[in-house]
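Hello, quick one for you while I still have it in my head. Could you read through the record and tell me how the tokens relate to the sequence? No rush at all, and the record is pasted right below.
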Amino acid sequence: MTYPTPETRDPRPETRDPRLFDLIQQALAGDARAAARLMTLLESDPAAVPEIMRQVYPRAGGAHVIGVTGPPGAGKSSLVDTLAASLRVQGRTVGIVAVDPSSPFSGGALLGDRIRMQERFADSGVFIRSMASRGQPGGLAKASQNVAALLAAMGKDAVLIETVGVGQEEIDVVRVADTTIVVLVPGLGDAVQTMKAGLLEVADVFAINKADREGAERLFKDVHLMVHMGAVEGQWSPPVLKTVATEDQGTGELLAAVEDHRRFLRETGQYAERRRRAAETEIQGILRERLLASVTHRVPALGRYADEVGQRQYDPYTAVDRILREAQLDG
């Protein structure tokens, strides 16, 4: 007996809404308007997300996902813009997920596509999506990973994810990106203290941006020293590069370092392992959400337990035990 592959199996029976099925097919065929509508659903309609991702994920393995993270003011947007331009010169198509702070009024992205990266917005080989963080910790919007998968499934050669810029909490990108660029800039604090924040531990490549400023050389040397002090033979040692994104200086070298890292991952078998770990994290996240939703549905008086623990009638562990028994999930 032969079993249908994701490419040969008719996906229509799996998609309960024929209109959603048609929208997905249009997006996967490269229709930018359909893709934008799907991305809105991924952000705002939890019920539609599983339906969309069922069709998207089997086709989403081709793009190299590049995370660009770092503290606010480091010039991440300018760097993403110049990286996208360099990729386009190479003839490669690009998807950009730019995670912005949430508007306090609308809840939407505070910065928009038309404000940032205006030249790239007019390029049919580049698709830009600005997303609001909506208070999500870790520097990424909740739907960022799904939007990146959709861009990859649309056939983009590279997907650039720019995080919101929240300093040391900004590490979720490492669970999504194949290669993570950490952008630093002189004048934003002592390099040693920044290194201790944990943000730099996720770096595959360091970019000392605004390298024409005073203090850039010292920052470069400090980071370079720290990287090589912790180097392990046979493991990837993150290169430290200088860039001036607004002048398109150092972009070529930065892109070459990303390609070197991609080659290293493939040659050592770490590419598949990274993606397996990312998938495990994503599965666990969805599982946590669904289990919590199930418990909340089965135990409507959940707030009562919080009140009783808050009054120190018993401890949180006892509360969880009682909630699981009431939800019939304890055995």
Remarks:
- Strands lie at 64-69, 94-100, 126-132, 158-162, 179-184, 205-208, 240-242.
- Residues 278-327 form one domain.
- Residues 270-298 form the longest helix (29 residues).
